[in-house]
Design goal:
Largest sheet: 5 strands, antiparallel
Number of strands: 14
Shape: globular
Number of helices: 12
Strand content: 15-25%
Strand order of the largest sheet: 4-5-10-6-7
CATH class of the domain at 168-262: Alpha Beta
Length: 264
């Protein structure tokens, strides 16, 4: 590690001022600290967000569950409010990494980082969530722009995310066993505006909605309808863990399983 300045403000306004001045926000540190150790990132000032109380709430607002950016994975997994109103999100959080990762990693850090194999982005996109920052609110469909890339501007900080409560939803994850990231994760939601389906882990460009599967399931919500959709593998990732062909197969199989679960 190298020398840097460490700040730990207790208010969002103080943190925002430091970040606007060029400091790097520190949430759970699961990616950032490892990057700093390897000299892949070298911020001169870190702003630890862990003391800011307003970033740690989980609350119900109307028909949406609002979760603060600094809420940890373990807290999402264990929250009675989340398990009661959005059990698919609690189940997703319980599958992230291992116990140590879940004890430190945060919702906001994961979404802001937008790792192409992370779990939370699929929930944000499939549920049509809204990302609230210290400047504005961003719809999920406008937020994720590609691998490790989001609509967040320099100096902009996520405060919370609003998840509309769906009629039904489920997340199925095929893990890469060493990292526990998603080789393919499928989040399927039946919402008031129709079926939404997001895929993570399959594309090097990051999370995406699979519109062909959505269209088929909006017309006929059945396992057969999902199975009939040919998954285009041309934009899918091939790496040491799996080929694009295998990932295409997993998208189809996981979607069929998800439909079967939601049909009861």
């Amino acid at each position: 590690m190298y020398a840097f300045t460490y700040e730990r403000p207790s208010s969002l306004s103080d943190a925002s001022q430091l970040i606007k001045a060029g400091a790097q926000p520190l949430a759970g540190g699961q990616t950032l600290l490892a990057s700093m150790k390897q000299r892949l990132s070298s911020p001169e000032t870190l702003v630890d967000l862990s003391k800011i109380a307003e970033l740690k709430d989980i609350k119900l607002e109307g028909q949406s569950l609002v979760i603060g950016a600094m809420v940890k994975h373990a807290q999402v997994a264990e929250s009675e409010l989340v398990k009661s109103h959005l059990p698919s999100l609690a189940a997703l959080a319980a599958q992230i990494g291992d116990k140590q990762v879940r004890a430190m990693g945060t919702l906001g850090g994961s979404v802001a980082n937008n790792d192409p194999s992370a779990c939370y982005p699929s929930a944000v996109l499939a549920l049509g969530a809204t990302v609230h920052t210290d400047h504005r609110s961003i719809k999920a469909d406008d937020f994720f722009l590609g691998m490790f890339t989001t609509a967040l501007e320099s100096g902009e900080l996520i405060k919370s995310i609003s998840f509309p409560i769906p009629k039904k939803a489920v997340y199925l994850k095929f893990k890469q066993q060493a990292s526990r990231f998603a080789m393919v994760g499928v989040y399927l939601a039946q919402t008031n505006s129709g079926v939404r389906l997001a895929v993570t882990g399959a594309s090097s460009q990051g999370v995406f909605r699979h519109h062909a599967l959505e269209d088929a399931l909006n017309k006929n919500f059945s396992v057969d309808a999902a199975a009939a959709v040919k998954i285009d593998e041309s934009d899918l990732n091939t790496d040491i863990h799996a080929s694009a062909t295998y990932r295409a197969h997993l998208i189809s199989v996981q979607t069929q399983r998800a439909v079967k679960i939601l049909l009861g």
